[in-house]
């Protein structure tokens, strides 16, 4: 909540100029900057408080986690690789969850953090294709702005191939079995379908690729991985 609200606050002036985002709450006047800023502060405080109730390491790392998810909003102002910073902002979630439960970080779970980083980075590159013209005009940095839409689609595909490789490495490292492998294969099929929905000439199905398919992918991976772990239980 803090990250999303902060993003809207940081990008309010940009959103007001972008036809695609002019109807968001701040540019449209549905919310005031003061309210959103207060929401960010309260959400951040609740996050730190919650972290303090888990273990010492989660508390110590909570400011770092907040810094990553909040400061992402400014990266498009100076680097084309902001997509991967967004990926990292979401990718730290598996490692954070591990620390919350175990009180320490197992290096193996970093494979899942990296997989999520490239997964999110890849589909954010897809999503940014619709802002190609605006980003160029506004001087914002993105892969589509620098590489063009056609090349950006290939970069997004490369990110997702790397994601699948990392998921396979995760399965091997944690000695997961056939059910989890089927899950990764299913994720690969869904990613291929996601990419089939968009082309340099037609981005009209981008929302379906971005929101619907990624929601399905995350649930599929969860179900197959959980199923594998339950299958192997004595």
What does this structure look like?
The chain has 234 residues and is mainly alpha-helical. The protein folds into 2 domains: 1-53; 74-232, UbiA prenyltransferase (Four Helix Bundle (Hemerythrin (Met), subunit A), Up-down Bundle), CATH 1.20.120.1780. It contains 11 helices and no strands. The protein has helices spanning 2-10, 12-17, 25-28, 33-52, 56-75, 82-102, 110-128, 132-138, 143-173, 178-196, 206-232. Helix 1 packs antiparallel against helix 4 (33-52), helix 5 (56-75) runs antiparallel to helix 6 (82-102) and helix 10 (178-196) packs antiparallel against helix 11 (206-232). The radius of gyration is 19 Å and the shape is globular. The model has no long low-confidence stretch (mean pLDDT 94).
Q: Biggest β-sheet: count, sense, barrel?
A: none
Structural class: mainly alpha
Number of separate structural domains: 2
CATH homologous superfamily placement of the largest domain: UbiA prenyltransferase
Helicity, as a percent range = over 70%
Describe what is shown at a glance.
With 234 residues, this protein is mainly α. 78% of the residues lie in helices and 0% in strands.
Summary tags:
mainly alpha; 234 residues; 2 domains; 78% helix; single chain; Four Helix Bundle (Hemerythrin (Met), subunit A)
Give the topology, please:
Elements: H1 2-10, H2 12-17, H3 25-28, H4 33-52, H5 56-75, H6 82-102, H7 110-128, H8 132-138, H9 143-173, H10 178-196, H11 206-232
Helix pairs in contact: 1-4, 1-5, 4-5, 5-6, 6-7, 7-9, 7-11, 8-9, 9-10, 10-11
């Amino acid at each position: 909540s803090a990250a999303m609200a902060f993003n809207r606050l940081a990008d309010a002036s940009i959103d007001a100029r972008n036809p695609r985002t002019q109807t968001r709450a701040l540019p449209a006047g549905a919310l005031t900057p003061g309210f959103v800023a207060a929401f960010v502060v309260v959400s951040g405080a609740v996050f730190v408080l919650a972290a303090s109730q888990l273990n010492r390491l989660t508390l110590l790392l909570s400011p770092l986690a907040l810094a990553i998810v909040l400061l992402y909003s400014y990266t498009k102002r100076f680097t084309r690789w902001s997509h991967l910073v967004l990926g990292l902002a979401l990718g730290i979630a598996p490692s954070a969850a591990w620390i919350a439960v175990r009180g320490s970080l197992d290096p193996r779970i970093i494979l899942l953090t990296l997989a999520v980083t490239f997964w999110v980075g890849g589909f954010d590159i897809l999503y940014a294709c619709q802002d190609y013209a605006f980003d160029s005009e506004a001087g914002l940095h993105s892969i589509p702005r620098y590489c063009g839409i056609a090349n950006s689609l290939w970069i997004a595909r490369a990110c997702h191939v790397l994601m699948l490789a990392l998921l396979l490495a995760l399965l091997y490292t944690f000695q997961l079995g056939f059910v989890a492998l089927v899950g990764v294969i299913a994720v690969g099929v869904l990613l291929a379908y996601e990419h089939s929905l968009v082309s340099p000439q037609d981005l009209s199905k981008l929302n379906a690729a971005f929101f619907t398919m990624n929601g399905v992918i995350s649930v599929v991976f969860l179900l197959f991985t959980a199923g594998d772990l339950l299958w192997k239980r004595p």
